[in-house]
Amino acid sequence: QVQLVESGGGLVQPGGSLTLSCAASGVIFSINGMGWYRQAPGKQRELVAVITSGGSTNYADSVKGRFTISRDNAKNTVYLQMNSLKPEDTAVYYCNAAGSGLWGPYDSWGQGTQVTVSS
After folding, report:
1. Are strands 10-12 and 113-117 parallel, antiparallel or unpaired?
2. Residue whose C-alpha is closest to residue 26's, from 62, 1, 48
3. How far apart are CA 60 and CA 37, in angstroms?
4. Rounded to whole angstroms, how far apart are CA atoms 57 and 71?
5. pLDDT of 39-61, one tens digit each?
6. How far, in Å, are 6, 17, 50, 61, 117 from residue 109 at the CA level?
7. pLDDT tens column, 50-101
8. How far apart are CA 24 and CA 96, in angstroms?
């Protein structure tokens, strides 16, 4: 079983920055896609950014130019650098990873980390 642990959330003022991290642990044979999703109160979970094992990225239109996703394959870790944060970025951010592990294919989610953008 592959587990994901997020860190780095918190309270930040509008215009500020935060960096989220997500580390995968367990018996991991491969990690293909890794990504970040978010869910605001009363809304559905939405894609924020994803990155493939080869480094290709895709972003939601609402975060393009402000957020950057990256990964360290040696550490099985994905990052989300968030700049120019807006109140509408407030949400619980979830990490996702999919690949192959000891027990076969996996598609794992982290427990979520709260990001609050407020003055």
Report:
1. parallel
2. 1
3. 10
4. 10
5. 999 999 999 999 999 999 999 99
6. 10, 24, 13, 23, 23
7. 999 999 999 999 999 999 999 999 999 999 999 999 999 999 999 999 998 8
8. 9
- CB atoms under 10 Å from CB of 95, counted, come to 27
* HSE-up (13 A, CA, CB side) for residue 44: 2
Nearest CA-CA partner of 49 in 18, 81, 25, 17: 81
Which two three-digit tokens encode residue 24? 């995968």
SS (H, E, C) 52-95: CCCCCEEECCCCCCCEEEEEEHHHCEEEEEECCCCHHHCEEEEE
How far is CA 22 from each of CA 32, 46, 81, 87, rounded to the nearest angstrom? 15, 17, 12, 23
